[in-house]
Amino acid sequence: MSSDTQATGVKAWITRLFVKVGVLPFFLLGALVIFTLLSSKFLTGQNLINVARQSVYLVLVSMGQMLALVTGGFDLSVGTAIALTSVVSAMGMVWLAGIFPDVIWLAILLGAFLGFGAALMVGLVNGIGVAYFEVSPFIMTLGVSSVGAGFALFLTGGVPVSGLPFQFADTFGFGRLWSIPVPVIIAVICIVIMWVLMARTRLGTQIYAVGGNIKAAHLSAINTRRTLLLAYMICALIASLTGLLLTARVESGEANLGGSIALESIAACVIAGVSLRGGIGRVENVVLGAFFIVLVQNGMNLAQVSSYMQMVLLGALLILAVIFDQIRYRIIMQGR
Amino acid sequence: MPSQPLIRTTGLSKQYPGVLALDSVDFELMPGEVHVLFGENGAGKSTLISMLAGANSPSGGTIELNGEKMRFGSVADAQAKGIYTVFQEFSLIPTLSVAENIFLGWEPMKGPFVDHREMRRRAREMFQELDFEIDPTEVTGRLSRAQQQMVEITKAFHGDLSVLILDEPTASLTDREVDHLFDFIETLKARGVGIIYISHRMQEFARIADRVTVLRDGAKIGTVAMDETDDDALVEMMTGRAISEIYPQIAHNPGEVLLRAEGVRTNGVQAADVDIRAGEVLGVAGLVGCGKSRLFRAMMGVAPRLAGRVTLKGQDITHAPTRQIIHHGMYYLSPDRKGEGLDLAKTANDNLAVNLVMGGRGGTGLINWSAVREASVQIADYVELHEGYRSRLVSQLSGGNQQKVLFGKCFGQDADVYILDEPTVGVDMGTRAALYLLIKELAEAGKAVVVISSDLPEVMHLAHRMLVMAHGRLSAELSGDEMTEDTILKHFFDESGATQ
What we know:
CATH topology of the largest domain in chain B: Rossmann fold
Membrane topology (chain A): Multi-pass membrane protein
InterPro entries (chain A): ABC_transp_permease
Subcellular location (chain A): Cell membrane
Strand content of chain A: under 5%
Transmembrane segments (chain A): 21-43, 55-74, 81-98, 104-125, 137-157, 177-198, 229-250, 308-327
Number of domains of chain A: 1
Keywords (chain A): Cell inner membrane, Cell membrane, Membrane, Transmembrane, Transmembrane helix, Transport
Number of strands of chain B: 22
Oligomer: heterodimer
């Protein structure tokens, strides 16, 4: 029991910080020191802006992932939602642009909605399975992830969907508004919406309550099934939005987008102090957690770590974060 | 009594950062003695036994076993020296059979293999000796809590047991099971085993205790021989107040019928009719497993409803989901505060906030957290939750304080009917008095209050009217002078018409 040891002032302060926000500040500090030492290009304004732009996609998905984690589950199918959105929206846009060549924005809009619809189906199936049939989130989202990936590959025959409207990629992939990249603006808007959702709405409170103790939530007049369903649907919707932005970035509909994002988003959340047991997690920390993962990837690129080795390190980082989460939980539950 | 104590502690202390949980306590246990530890939650009882059991190491003082100074490295270490503790949290593995659990780590062997037949035979023998009715081949997780407790106690009988520590062993037992346990304690006493017994149930002390040591705020108040003291004196030692201050007089002004159940049937409960009036406390008594909790859980929609009709303020809620029943004004306080009452990893304030938000106290649009916080301060004041505890995690609070938070949740949503299921389970006398006052205020404010309790004195003192259940049936409805202990107990065992 760690509270048995005579804690000095500094140690007590560090413990308190650790219990309050988790392992993230320590990881962030460590990453900054290590990569600054490894590469002189790392700690430059240009590089950090670059990291901010690259991190948009993971930040978005991680916020969705957080919802699933806070309810006490997780969503392994976020990558599939991305791939499905990419393929369906790209096919829709190409097809609709052929029908209405004059109103290209209508084609883009309708195509996007087709993509959202496909991802919402993923969220709906996840949510129904977890909430109404009480399938474990692990099995449910793993199964759905295979089903969705299969559909995406089936629809495209494994070939990327090309010939997207030029305006789509130009605006959502590379566009700038007031010299800020459009994806960054979209991410910021989403962050604000998610923060309001979790901190200021009844649904947010219900999601925390369901993850904290689902039976107690039930006896507090909370519709626990609806809450779980909505959490998985919102998660899929945000993943879908990410899929759309990624599609614009790569200028084609790809069934292999988002391959490693489930792992990365769970790592981002856990590092940011979202409890795997549910009930605990904050939007602002998750944003930082996702930023941290991308920062590490960027640092490893600059330090010329091979991409295979990067996979090793990312997995190790996730496990390490979970170990710290476990320690933190133990300290919390022991108290005193 | 032999002069050499089995266990003697001198100046035993436990210092946690910021809290002195045990303040130089001298304690001794003689062979063949039942020594009760008595005190409110947080008084230091658990800390004391955790050190005797080897689960915790003292920060000051000494422990002597048979006159020899001891330091226990672990629970297994203490067990090897003959000290066995049955904690409230069981150490059973739910997926193993009963026999496998009992012999876990002590499996009888036949060559290199576990001898399952011998294991079952010996388990059956032990159960016979203890007069417990349990099938050793049953999967442990399917047993009732009471039966699991018996298995846990049975596990103590390996090697030479010299000290048995029982932490609230009767909390989940039926009266008949308690009788068995006490018979068995007598057997142990005759063998010279020393027993440390923690309980809040004072009616048990007279039956089994030789001496009682009272603790308060980590310090020993005194040790008294049971035949030289009485309940009132013990309560006074424990709380510093008299017993007449514990149960309040609740004014009885019955109004209209708020909740009416007709022919409600669920698994193990047969067609029950219940009427509950405003301004009245209805007690529901019966043995553990008689269906008293299940009947009301069925009305709340938490347990399956098989038949019958339930109306709340004239509105049919028979098939309504739990959340709608709560919105219509019926609130259920769960007996299991850890399992389905509270979110342990959140603060007391956060736990209160959930119900306040759901009850609409945070406004209808975006949540107005300052209004919620204000309301939660009011509630915490009302249930007398000390200010220092409000922003602490619930997991770190004592059982009594957790129960105050659970009661506080009741007031987050406006209700007219309160179903309080075992409202003081595992709660000390001081906190009980405070909770009883809350019940009094609810009833006198015109609410209908149902108190479901296995604690007979509690129901008797609080209720204006009482339902007694036996074998899943209402066996009696009593009021006023009819509510005597003898009458109630007689109906506990009412077999008339029961289909067992």
